[in-house]
Batch of 4 targets.
Target 1
Amino acid sequence: MTLNRRDFLKISGAGAAVTLTGCATQAASRGRPHVVVVGAGFGGATCAKYLRQWDPNIDVTLIEPNDKFVSCPISNWVIGGLRTMDDITHGYDRLPRHGIKMVKDTVVAIDPAKRFVKTRSGVSIGYDRLVLAPGIEILTDTVKGFNEAETAGKVVHAWKAGPQTALLRKQLEAMPDGGTFVMSVPAAPYRCPPGPYERACMVANYFKQAKPKSKIILLDGNPDIVSKKPLFTDAWNTFYPGMIDYRPNNAPLAVDSGTMTVTTEFDAVKGDVLNVVPKQRAGELCALAGARNDSAGNWCMVNFLTFESTTVPNVHVIGDSVLSSLPKSGHMATNHAKICAAAIVELLAGRQPDPIPVVANTCYSATSSTTSGYVANVYRYEAGKGYVSAPEGGATPKGDELNFKYNDSWARNIWAEVLS
Amino acid sequence: MYKMTTLAIAGFVGLALSGFAGAADIHTKSIASTCMSCHGPGGKSLGAVPSLAGLDKDYFVKSMKEFKAGTRAASIMKRHANGYTDAEFEAMGAYFAGLK
């Protein structure tokens, strides 16, 4: 384990050469370690905040291209009309109070040997340790015709909350009563395992109220409902009988926005609104660092005590990009972030990280405008095994009103935890 | 490396059992911090989920043990309580009691 602190390389506006030479004197005189976090979503923002909270002697720079944080959790509620885009959109203005230096930019290159990142605007930023939290990259090329349909604004995935969330809501509002909503779910692993089924519930809830003759066809690339099956099955049967046509083993091959058809291996399905969610992999940032290192080059393998890449020293990866048995959820990303931050504090101080980290996942899904259910698990690290699920975790078989209140409270608390 | 890990684990268990009064160890800080994702930053909730900051330690430990045993009715907390040891309940209880 290398614990020696490299010179802290201060941000320079004049490119890599200047950064690596011109500012070294200043860095050496300060002798403060510098951690750069890229991506201010659930994982990245949390990691930056906890690094500062747990060791104020660490300088933390958080690089994020977007002005605002738009939450994927609760975005299905926007699609269903329960909440607005404003409700899930939050500013980053409170993070600098922790002493985090926010940089609005996009990282375009990473040099793990010389330990610096380069941004689109030409700034090079040196680091002692780098944390990558890019979320997912959506493989739109894997569904023929998707790119054209997406560019034309006809078909969206809405699997990253933002403009596509709002557009999908508009498409559903414009759809006539008696229309068909077709949603396509990719084969696992993908972001937010219960997300597709919650989305079906939210759209069904909207149809039931506003367009009761309408139908939903759910084309699942998996052999069965991936998460919270009893919860969703109960909701579909109880609240929306006959409305949701669930078809397993139906991964999409192509989409045609002219004829509004999704083609799978077995079916060609027409709809009035098509919502195709392609396969995913770790964000492009991870590839820039050489950290998208599983055998297929899709996900990132990390040391689970530190979330440091197994192949790229001093580069940590947290959140959805990580290859593990842990669910790809925003909640889980915040807990990756905390284990990672705690480990970095220890490593930079020349100490050992916690040898027995514990992470927990809590994930609520709404099944109607007044009911939700959850899945919760605690995962304890065991040497040689990774994170092992503790006994008796699991999901509620039925949604209820109390859990809807907790679902709403969970969202407000985790947004505050990440951003304030 | 294996020896080092074993020693470190022994150290953590020792700390957890002794009930440190001062600054929390890294394991306690980490596991306590994961609770904040639902219970709010600094253990102060903004909604229906209860706050943890300033909670009486004995009440916290008793509640978690009862959740784990299934003797106290719970929505989600039995699922969580099952994942932690009694020593961790004690350590987290002391940590939350100390939050203002």
Target 2
Amino acid sequence: MPIVEVRSLSYTYPGSTKPTLTNVNFSVEEGEFILLTGPSGCGKTTLCRCLNGLIPNSYGGEFNGQVIVDGLVTTEHPVYEIAQHVGLVFQNPENELFCTSVEREVAFGPENLALPREEIRKRVEESLAMVGISHLRDKSPEELSGGEQQKVAIAALLAMKPKILVLDEPTANLDPASAQSVLNVLLKLNEESGVTTILVEHRLEMVAHMAHRCAILNEGRLVLMGKPEDVLYSDEAEAIGIGIPKVVQVTKALGINKMTGKCPLTSWSLADLLRVWKK
Amino acid sequence: MISFEDVSYSYSPGRYAIEHINLSIDKGEVVAILGENGAGKTTLIKHINGLLKPQSGSVIVSGMNTKETTVATLARHVGLVFQNPDHQLFAETVEKEIMFALTNFNFPEDEISRRVNWALKEFGLLEYKDRPPFLLSGGERKRLALASVLCYDPQIVILDEPTTGQDYRQKLHLASLIKKLNSESKTVVVVTHDIEFAADFIPRSIIMSKGRIIADGDSEELLTNRELLMSASLIPPQLVELSWDLALNPPTIHFDELVSSVKKLLEGREA
């Protein structure tokens, strides 16, 4: 059974006449890593808000269709309950961090669930360790770098033990090295702990090879969803104008995908392919 | 047009945000400033529009010493677009946001409406003109911040991380806009983490690390230098990585060059 199901979802913000999402249908299996991309304003952030129930529960507006996450129909449960199943990470970690120490920040969620002290302590330890920031526990989030802050935000969500993580451009404000390190954390959580991951990202060259499937939204509609290599090598993806990774462009320009039947997504896999093929 | 002479600045004693910066940018140049978070990039550009005054050394912009010139005067010459549009946007509607600087600089009314219309169209914001800025998407707010600065036509344009949250088309649009500014002899300084953008569109790069400039020169030369990129914690552009993986000599940041070198490599196989 899928862990996320989106059925005929259409949504219009209050006061707007144009729908932001139109008839979106897809499902995600437990443990999948989904890369969601599409032009700016296509509805990616709106879709993320639908996945954790912020829409329609906190936003109002005209909501049609159904979103079911971990068995919960989002319109029938309050956001705090859905939050224990779906963790949402925003673009700007400054907007969500407010405690005086990393440890407190991570403990905040479980404290609010009124869990026993020992359980809270255990969850904080585990979450910090999973993200690799145990050494930052006594620091104030303010004095951390952007990448570290984003890891604190992720750890704070993990302490709620969600089965699903939804991340809305978590690396947008980070330098490349920090971005890579946050993405590595996500990959590890997915591979080792089986956290179902839905990642919104523009920098496809950094993440395409990590995902099981790639979905493209355009003007509020889900236009493509499939294996990253099938999606990114498609003519439709090129026409929509997402940033097709250079490796894909080079491979296509040389016709290597047609000649070998292989669709590399990283420079090393293209280089390997060329080396083997050259012999 | 812009010159830094041995400029240092520190926010807290004992730790310099930028240190011994020497830099000269000519009129009409387009320059990228690259470097990891905390390298001092934003501190450096805040010296160009006088938001920060050098604690030692001096900064001369369009012939004015920034220490002796008000931010208001400098602002007419230097347009700074912040990284986070929310630090900049405040008006009730998109249209009013764009009008704000124009009104403050006492442009005549017909000129204001002409420029506002231009900006709304140029940045794809026409349909949102009566909306509050905070209802726009992240990418749209970013474009509004850009529109509200470019509408008053400053001679020097500084863009702090202009590509974050922007999709591929908008990046191309931004690139063509930079080209246009350049053809009007404007000076453009782009602070960016987007090394692909710098490699594709910006001829000169300045690389910063730990408050200092560690390299300044031709983008292709700098961005194909492995040791340099590593010491600045920069991840190489994909084409450069591919050049290295294929042992292409010389490595390149240009798509067409790379494709033709790989072609040659493969033809060698057939011969």
Target 3
Amino acid sequence: MSFREAVESGKFLITCEVGPPKGVNIGPVLEEAELLKDRVDGINVTDLQAACMRVSSVATCALLKQRGVEAILQMVCRDRNRISLQSEILGAYLLGIRNVLCLTGDHVVLGDHVEAKPVFDLDSVSLLQAARGLAEGKDLAGNELEEAPKDLFLGAIVTPGAEPVEPQIYKLHNKVKAGARFIQTQAVYDAGAFARFMERVSDLEVPVLAGIVLLKSAGMARYMNANVAGVSVPDPLIKEMAEAGQKDKAAKADGKKADYRVKTSIEIAARLMRDLKPLCRGVHIMPLGWGHHVAAVLEAAGL
Amino acid sequence: MIASEPKPVEEILGYLEGERAIFVVACDGCATGCEVADPEHTAALVKELEANGKSVTGVARVEMSCNGGLVALMLSQHLEVVQQAEGILVLACGVGIQTVARAVERPVHPATNSTYLGGFQGLWRSEPRCAECGNCMLDYTAGICPYTACSKSLLYGSCGGPKNGMCEVDPEVPCGWVQIYERLAALGRAERLKEMPPLRNFRSMLPAGERRRASLWALELTEPEAAEEEG
């Protein structure tokens, strides 16, 4: 089933993400996708995530497509102007890619080429407009296309925990107006806060997939709280992870198996997913290197 | 000097839709030098506004509208009229418009497009800053320039990066779009963010040939050549 069919079927959606390698060692990404592909409705491929130079998202999506994976191409506006972005969408379409997630992208100073020119000719909203225009047979300059990529299926993101959240909500409205047919969110850790956000966007008729980032440690949670915009891990979860970390330390000292953190992380994610399920149309899991634990998370969540 | 051009009257009238009592601020600095804000052109615009059903409740001139102190002094002399105005129309460069918008809690509209910072090498530009983009968006953005106040120069609202209202690029710099949202909300105009203006046109940033020829660097470059030719 294509991702569009899954969305239109009304089922509870599960998507996941993989990140292309820095260098041409593509094997691990393909293996990760192979592990996930039968458990999820689509796999996002990040586009130069965190402004770090890597293999392109389009090339990785094409390789996944060849292996029967329903790929969701992420595109950011940091590195290409409107000419190049439109061209890339057409090229991806020819390679069989239909799902495109449009994002603005992190600024170059957050990445590993801090001296690069930040482009941002378009942003998430205008990229959606451009892509929808292409699907309807016209480029941004109004020129007619020879055959339109009419089956493009477009998505966007939102940060429900942004402070203030209103600018995000206004922009989300414009994203939907500009052609977004599905929404994936930044990491959510508080189902109650997420419920209040969903209430505020209840006038938008678009499926929302709540973002799940697997917690690897208490330190990671604290780091995200301090540094990642719109992400807030509640203290009780940090405490749970810290206690698991202590147990792992003790187990290691005794020469025993130290898997308490992994178990706790899976448990937290599964609990969150069960709490989020009644609130939205699906979940989008960002395992950040823990792709091999995703199946266990889904199982624990009963998905 | 920041060179500016008048916006088409239709565009200005579009900004003023729903507002009748309009207070006009005109700058005696660069915008007057460009014959955009001088008394004659200001009077002509006022006449156009009145012909289109607007009531111009006052015209104030300020020596240099980029100077916050001078703007505050001028506004204090017209306090009552300014407070009663439904909108304030500013004939100045983008810096002047932003300076006025900072000083009043009324909707501020640009009457000009700033196009070009001509021939002033060594000039220290503080803030607010104008990108001389040639198509002033300050009406849409509550008098805060999205191109200079946002690190990504975004036109369609905040990215996902701001944390506690501060920019992802520098946590000591406020997010331009959070500021825009907050000022729009204070003016009761936040719903405007559901509008999507046309894409930015980068062509309007290219200095026209005549401007290039008129700027000081062009004089520096062409004068010696001319002198050489004359032998």
Target 4
Amino acid sequence: MAIKLYDPVGEVGPIVNVAPSRLEAFERSRIGYVFNHHPAAEAVWTSLEANIQKILRPELVARIDKANVAISVPRPQLEQLASRVDCVLVGVGA
Amino acid sequence: MSVALAAKTVEVADLEAAIEHCYERGWTDGLPVVPPTAPAIERILRYLRLDPQKVVGSIPPRNGIATIEKIAINCVMAGCKPEHVPIVIAALEAMLEPEFNLVGVQTTTNPCAPLVMVSGPVVRALGFNTKDCAIGHGSRSNGAVGRAIRLILWNVGGGFPGEPCRTTHGHPGYWSYCVAEDDETCPWDSLHVSQGFSKDESAVTVIAVDGPHATNTGALLNSADQVFNVLADGVARLGSNNMLGGSMALILSPMSAKRLAEAGFTRRTIAEEVAKRSTRPAGEMRQHRFVDHMLPIQRARLDALGDAEPFAYFTDAEGIVVLVTGSWGAVGGYAAICPGWGHFGGHPQSRRIQFPDRE
């Protein structure tokens, strides 16, 4: 006798896709950084920021420096950062 | 009376095909599952009396939506009776608290898995094992509740090894990790009462921890002072993530608990004493580059010490959960030390188990 099985996989809500932007589009813009300060990524992040500074010459830089590499930044703090900048670069070393 | 189910369905020829289909679709973590069929799912939903489409939360990292129906389906697959499901729901709600950092627990390289600790009248009512092999095999309630949590993290949360879950080794508790407190031998109020719940209620506490490290406390013959020395030595391993602080579970056998209780210690003061004694020389700590992962405040505390001075892994006892379960043992009077993930997350969260109103 046939058996009917029910799918246990949870549905995922709709994902909003945003058109990608080229890095050059952010020249002289306001840039935000969120970095988790994982020891494995400190060197590359420092170099990345230095190069962004040199190439894009941002008008304003705002940062969230995470003290805890693994805990998410609270939403209000992220929203406050987002309200001040044109784009946010997120760095997660692991 | 049937209940309207929204999940997609597939028809297979027979029981063997059903079990194989669950493997083929990736619906199981490697062990065979009970095929999720309508009668079994509906039995749970009729028991719960909840809207099947009620959302308990989204489970990271995939952010799949855990509806009551999806939870029921996974509970069937895990071998749960309907009465087990409110415990699973309470544990899931607790794991979704921000302090638990479930996305981190699911994806970290550290081998931490959610350990579900059950306390209260439900332990006896549903026959959870609190005697021999209380953390191991042998009991449907322990096994099914722990397995249901894992299958939900798997099927709804997408917690698959490799990508995105990078746990280096994992441990056997990833299949199922559920213990219950033994109110018969616990010398203090039950865990849930110590957390502010009433005696008549039942509750779960979840914490993300490594596998249990068996620790021979020698509690039959050792003094309480020596039992603490043994426990502290087990906690303050150089390779433990608890060198970064955070949380841990300390599961005491009845004999170990009795020895400490006779010396006047309570659940709270045991945690405080373990926190105080779990130290290593600061110089030895500094040689281990894992200290680079310390929170700045912890690192400053370490750097302020001379090489020979003791560095305490925990600054307080808040994250140390003490539970009593297992059999009496012999001279050993064991304890199981379950190290946590450090300050990163997996911190203990508790919830009352809400059973359906039968009136």
